[in-house]
Amino acid sequence: MYSVPVTAKNRKWTLGMWQQYFARKSKEHFVYHTPNGCVWQLDESHTALVCRNPKTGWERRYPVSGVGKVVEPKFIATSHHGYFYLSGAGEIIYIDPQTMEGVNLAFLPKFQDHKPDSHFLNMNLDKDGLLWLTSADNGIFRVSFTPNQFRVISLPDGDKSGVKAICQLKNGDVLVGARSKNVYLLDMQGRVKQVFDYAHHQIGSIYHAMCDDRQNLWLSTKGDGLVKLTPDASRPIGYRIDHYRHDARDPYSISGNNVYMTCQDSYHRIWVATLDGGLNLLQEQGGKMRFYNKYHGMKNYPGYGLYMDARNLGRGQSSEKCG
């Protein structure tokens, strides 16, 4: 439907003037603008959909059938999942928003399973983000889009050293350990809640992070031993930080400072695996943490290169699968 101009007094429109007017209006009707600044329209021959960016001069052409016109052309731009163009010949061209590559929708595997040369009469994007397609000879198609599952979250202060460990807490917060030896606590939206910089907290480069059933965080570090973060609302940072490092003078200390990972078994015990000191079983006695390992307390500890049968570690030290 087009608006019709009111003729000036004593002026008559000829047939040619009307034809030119509706041709211009028809051309304007099939021009589409998208939020990325691109303009979409058919070329003069009606054999290609042209996308161009007037500011950059970038342009791309997507061939369409110029044979016959059975439907009214239509263009739909989704917020994240690309662009759909229904040509007058009843074909739908899909354009990927990342690569800007175009493909005839009927050639995609899901549609070829039904009929490889499907033609469509109309398409509509509903309020729930579902795309509905009516085909000429194969019923109705509903296209649902996979939600955006991934996004890149940059670390604070331009930290681009890389992430070595990550752990999600039960409240949805995420603990991130960077190669820079800084540790970050983010909320579910990726916003920074707390920064544990190495200069002040000495946590170190984390290999592995684990949250136990009491919401304590156990951080396995490269060279800085085992670090425990205990929730404590009275502390400015929200946690009490305890470091456990190997001490040759203390038989109950952890057996090595290169800690690979921790695990809590079904008996709620914490096991600690180190690169330079083997396996440790952690027990709290009299308010003090004690580590039992091959140097102290673990009998029949296997030699290097042998698989460990946890039943041989000693009486009362049965093993449970971590999980």
TrEMBL record:
What the entry lists under Pfam families is as follows:
Reg_prop
Q: Which UniProt keywords apply?
A: Kinase, Transferase
- Single GO MF annotation: kinase activity
**Signal sequence: where?**
none
Q: Would you tell me the protein name for this molecule? A: Two-component system sensor histidine kinase/response regulator, hybrid ('one-component system')
